[in-house]
């Protein structure tokens, strides 16, 4: 059965702990506080600050010095200045029962008009100091907690300095001093050097444990477990550099696992400390160091590179933030004005491989890149889909009824003759017009209400000058379209039919008959024309132009950002090795590629739809038009050419981005630049798009079929000539 361990791991050692090891700081802190000097112990975690404070308080109290202790982590970080200072007084006066709570609380309330720091000082001067005749030392531990407060605490540190300055005029302050302990630097706590108490205080240096003081304290738990406990302790200190937490922990492990002398010290350290250290680090020590180094990704890069330099060769200590932070983490220590890795355990765990792995992870997460502009994800809800379906169904129903009345009930004799005399026209043009409407509506609704919904919402709600201009343009074009539609149906078409078929017109003597022949078909047809031109053509034209200009701008901005980000990576971060910069350039291009696909993909769907309209009109739709109206086919060619132009511009921007990235990799001496350029070339891009997206596949097949169709027609014409 295992005996209880004499070693204490984690937390401060009790006053009578048998394994507490004396250090020079014990006497230095005690003597300085006895002399009434302000002291501070600012060093890394688990170096024994709290244990030192417990021992020093006991020695001071034994010398008739009144002591108070405040742990700032117990006060929380969410408090007003009034609550915080009052909480400090509460914990101070609680240590001295001779001071009644009512007296200081009444005094605090009576002076509520004073600033809180003045009230705090007033109560110490008028209540605390007169109530106690001996010297007073106030210990404040975890002082770094003030850095997380929502208010500035400069006044608190300025007050500590003021207490020292008032000693010349008010001797009562000679009996009051403070001792601050924590993991921070004076400059972090207060920036104003005129107000800081740290330049008039005494810094207490906490060094590692030494063999001459530790041999009688730390060997007792290893007696009977190893042949030579003192030699084992010497080897342990060689591994830990005297770090108190690690030393106590390894001594405990030796006492637990070295029985029978079958395991060497190195085996125990590797098995229970180094191997799988992240899972075995309990209580946490190594992970505390890791987390302090990696907490801020942008700072971590500089810390890791500075640590890498120290790991490879000791460096002269400086006041640079990286050196200070590394010492506060405990990972490095200062010896003879040189920074070295604190101990062999840290050197083994936080080695070159660990540094490279962390740099890879951090650099990938925090690489200095501006975010690429991309299309916002449209919110498509079930309710929205139902409303959209219902609205389109209403449009189709109204258009169907309009076509039925126009081509059926109210077609009229002259219009019937028009279609009979047109050799290319179909016998059932109404059905073809309905198919045309279905193709136009399905494509336009899909693009406007789904793929470009974010653009449509922005156009409708944005207060930008561009959006306002487009909204006014919609109104102006609507008025023009409505006027043109009315003019064609009520004036131009009837005049055309009267002039072309005068015999029919001469038979219509009754005004009502003339109305039924010429105006009524136009009236019932205008509903269909309105649906085609306004909810479909007008709306689609404006939204598409708005979306195209936005998307082309986004593509241009992304190219500019990619170029800027790559230049920043190459020129600004001189300490980053080319290996990481190469990875960053590739990552930036990969991000650009994803955003590029997100922006360009609607245009492949748009081209498929426009091509479907063109093929429909070319093969079937034009047969519903009179010869004068068949010039409409030119519009479909214009639409196809426009979409191809957009795709061409976008792809040219992509090729520019690829060239920028490839040139950067060449500058960074990337051996795989040629492969990168080949793998991301235009043909490879199209191959990926075709293989991963149905729209791209359909686009490819349509272009291919049209190309083959043109070739077949040319061959047929050549043979017909022969």
From TrEMBL:
A Pfam short name: AAA_35
Keywords for this protein: Membrane, Transmembrane, Transmembrane helix
Keyword Transmembrane helix annotated: yes
Membrane-spanning residues: 388-410, 469-487, 523-548, 589-615, 635-655, 685-704
Source species, domain of life: Bacteria
Cross-referenced InterPro entries: P-loop_NTPase (IPR027417)
This protein's name: AAA-like domain-containing protein
Organism: Leptothoe kymatousa TAU-MAC 1615
């Amino acid at each position: 059965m295992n005996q209880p361990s004499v070693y204490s791991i984690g937390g401060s050692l009790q006053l009578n702990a048998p394994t507490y090891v004396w250090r020079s700081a014990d006497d230095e802190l005690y003597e300085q506080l006895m002399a009434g000097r302000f002291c501070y112990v600012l060093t890394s975690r688990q170096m024994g600050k709290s244990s030192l404070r417990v021992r020093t308080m006991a020695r001071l109290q034994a010398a008739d010095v009144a002591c108070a202790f405040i742990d700032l982590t117990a006060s929380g970080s969410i408090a007003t200045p009034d609550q915080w200072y009052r909480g400090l007084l509460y914990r101070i006066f609680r240590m001295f029962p001779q001071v009644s709570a009512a007296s200081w609380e009444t005094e605090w309330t009576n002076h509520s008009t004073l600033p809180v720091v003045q009230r705090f000082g007033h109560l110490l001067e008028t209540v605390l100091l007169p109530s106690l005749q001996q010297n007073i030392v106030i210990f404040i531990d975890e002082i770094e907690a003030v850095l997380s407060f929502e208010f500035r605490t400069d006044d608190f540190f300025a007050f500590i300095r003021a207490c020292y300055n008032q000693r010349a005029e008010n001797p009562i302050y000679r009996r009051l001093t403070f001792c601050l302990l924590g993991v921070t630097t004076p400059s972090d706590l207060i920036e104003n050097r005129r107000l800081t108490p740290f330049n008039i205080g005494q810094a207490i240096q906490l060094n590692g444990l030494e063999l001459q003081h530790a041999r009688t304290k730390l060997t007792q738990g290893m007696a009977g477990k190893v042949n030579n406990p003192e030699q084992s302790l010497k080897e342990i200190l060689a591994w830990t550099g005297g770090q108190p937490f690690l030393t106590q922990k390894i001594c405990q492990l030796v006492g637990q696992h070295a029985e029978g002398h079958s395991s060497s010290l190195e085996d125990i350290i590797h098995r229970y400390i180094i191997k799988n250290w992240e899972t075995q680090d309990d209580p946490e020590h190594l992970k505390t160091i890791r987390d302090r180094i990696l907490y801020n990704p942008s700072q971590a890069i500089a810390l890791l590179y500075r640590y890498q330099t120290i790991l490879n060769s000791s460096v002269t200590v400086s006041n640079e933030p990286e050196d200070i932070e590394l010492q506060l983490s405990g990972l490095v220590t200062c010896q003879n004005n040189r920074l070295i890795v604190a101990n062999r355990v840290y050197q083994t765990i936080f080695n070159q491989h660990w540094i490279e792995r962390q740099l890879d992870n951090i650099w990938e997460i925090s690489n200095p890149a501006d975010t690429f502009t991309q299309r916002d994800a449209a919110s498509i809800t079930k309710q929205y889909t139902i409303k959209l379906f219902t609205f389109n169904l209403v449009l189709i129903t109204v258009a169907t009824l309009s076509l039925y009345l126009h081509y059926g009930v109210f077609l009229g004799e002259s219009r019937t003759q028009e279609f009979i005399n047109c050799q290319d026209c179909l016998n059932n043009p109404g059905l073809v017009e309905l198919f045309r409407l279905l193709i136009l509506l399905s494509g336009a609704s899909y693009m406007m209400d789904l793929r470009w919904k974010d653009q449509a919402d922005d156009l409708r709600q944005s207060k930008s000058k561009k959006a306002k201009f487009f909204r006014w343009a919609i109104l102006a074009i609507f008025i023009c379209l409505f006027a043109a539609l009315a003019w064609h149906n009520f004036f131009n078409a009837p005049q055309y039919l009267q002039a072309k078929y005068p015999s029919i017109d001469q038979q219509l003597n009754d005004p009502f008959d003339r109305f039924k022949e010429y105006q009524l078909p136009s009236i019932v047809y205008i509903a269909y024309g309105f649906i085609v031109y306004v909810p479909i053509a007008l709306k689609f034209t404006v939204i598409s132009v708005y979306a195209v200009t936005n998307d082309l701008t986004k593509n241009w901005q992304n190219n500019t950002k990619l170029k800027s980000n790559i230049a920043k990576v190459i020129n600004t971060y001189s300490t980053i090795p080319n290996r990481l910069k190469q990875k960053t350039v590739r990552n930036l291009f990969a991000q650009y590629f994803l955003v590029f696909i997100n922006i360009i993909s609607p245009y492949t769907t748009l081209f498929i739809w426009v091509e479907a309209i063109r093929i429909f009109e070319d093969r079937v739709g034009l047969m519903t038009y009179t010869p004068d109206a068949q010039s409409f086919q030119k519009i479909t060619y214009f639409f196809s050419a426009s979409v191809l132009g957009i795709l061409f511009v976008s792809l040219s921007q992509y090729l520019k981005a690829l060239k920028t990235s490839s040139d950067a990799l060449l500058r960074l001496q990337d051996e795989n630049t040629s492969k990168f350029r080949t793998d991301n070339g235009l043909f490879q891009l199209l191959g990926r798009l075709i293989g991963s997206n149905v729209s791209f596949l359909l686009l490819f097949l349509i272009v291919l079929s049209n190309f083959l169709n043109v070739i077949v027609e040319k061959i047929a014409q050549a043979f017909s000539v022969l």
